[in-house]
Amino acid sequence: MTTIWIVVAVTAAGTLALKAAGPVLLGGRPLPDRLSGVVTLVGPALLAALVAIGTFGDGQRLVIDARVLGVAAAAVAIRFRAPVLLVVIIAAAVTASVRAVAG
Amino acid sequence: MAGGSGERSYRHGVTASLPLSVAVFGFGISYGVLALSVGMGRLAPLVMSATTFAGSAQFAAASVLGGGGSAATAILAALMLNARYLPLGVTVAPWLEGGFWSRLLHAHLMVDESWAIAAEGQGRWNPRVMLAAGVGLWVAWVAGTAVGVLFGDALGNPATLGLDAAFPALFLALLAPQLRSEERTTAGAGLRIGASPQAVAALLGAAIALILTPFTPAGVPIISAGAACLIGLRKRS
Question: How far is B83 from chain A (nearest CA, A)?
């Protein structure tokens, strides 16, 4: 339980620091070009890693199971610009159905 | 600025953010349900929504903790996802008035959606619009989280429900628009390479994470994937 509260506190403080660095510290000065070029790519890299691990990860093993079909269904829904909540529900429903059928 | 136009800005912020607030409320419900399903309890996700107020980072922390990752890796993953708020904050900074606390409040209420709503084009931002939109979105996010943590375990066993697949689906939904918007800007910039830097970083990030999974503790593959952003260093060369 302590672990969770440490995560909650430090993430909140760190996030506020990142959000407020520009308004409070930098005033009107811009970020160096190289830094902003790198920073805009952190998001896609991390999100893709979270997709990959969430789909295939099982502890320290990589597996192919019902989640793959759930995420594939989600990808189709995203292609058709479905709202995020619907995408999440579709992924869960497809995965649950595959598990129910496969036993 | 005159009081009347200020009031109009606040009203515009609220009305423009209303449809998004509905979506964010639903998003908050899914966060509450998923955070509860990985054992974060009820209060911690709620406090996190109120204080961190950044969806993808909160989901990432929950996902890392749920996968058995340490507090440090969960925090790092969340903060790396929030690194984008550094440049966003820089763009708004010149338009903010007031002292330290006012700037801090505006910063806290700056999320992707309120930032986008407050953009007036040509590098101008309206801080009143951002504040009003941010308040609406914050209320929706926290209220949604509350509904999620209160009623989440009424749903049943997370694995049977397929909630573990909801995490990657959600991250994919957050990733897709970043790849799409970049398609347009790189096309506009006249770049001849087939893949955008965003897409390359995404593929590289996924590859790094999958390769490291068998060899490193949980959570480490995800934060290591952040190294893929270093390709941004050679973007202009």
Answer: 6
- Tens digit of pLDDT for each residue in B66-110? 999 999 999 999 999 898 888 888 888 888 888 899 999 999 999
Helix (H, G, I), strand (E, B) or coil at B120: strand
CB contact under 8 A, A85 and B29: yes
Beta-carbon separation of A15 and B57 below 8 A? yes
**H or E element that contains B121:** strand B119-121
- Residues ≥6 apart with Cβ < 8 Å to A22: B86, B87, B88, B89, B90, B91, B92, B93, B107
B112 touches A: beta carbon within 8 Å = no
Chain B from 72 to 111: CB within 8 A of any A CB: 74-75, 77-94, 96, 100, 103-104, 106-108, 110
Q: Two tokens at A96?
A: 């649950």
B contacts of A21 (beta carbons < 8 Å) = 86, 89-90
Partner-chain contact A41 B163, CB within 8 Å: no
Selected residue with higher pLDDT from A83 and B33: B33
- Residues in chain A predicted with pLDDT less than 50, given as ranges, are none
pTM of the predicted structure, to 2 decimals: 0.81
Residue A38 CA, distance from chain mean position: 18
Neighbour count for residue B41 (Cβ, 10 Å):
13
User: In DSSP terms, which residues pair with A57 in a beta bridge?
Assistant: A62
Percent of chain A whose predicted confidence (pLDDT) is above 70: 97
CA distance A71 to A94: 9
**A78–B172 C-beta distance less than 8 A:** yes
Indicate whether B202 pLDDT > 90: yes
Q: Is B54 on the interface with A (CB under 8 A)?
A: yes
Residue whose structure tokens are 């509350």:
B146
Mean pLDDT of B137-154: 94
Which residues of B fall within a CB distance of 8 Å from A97? 162
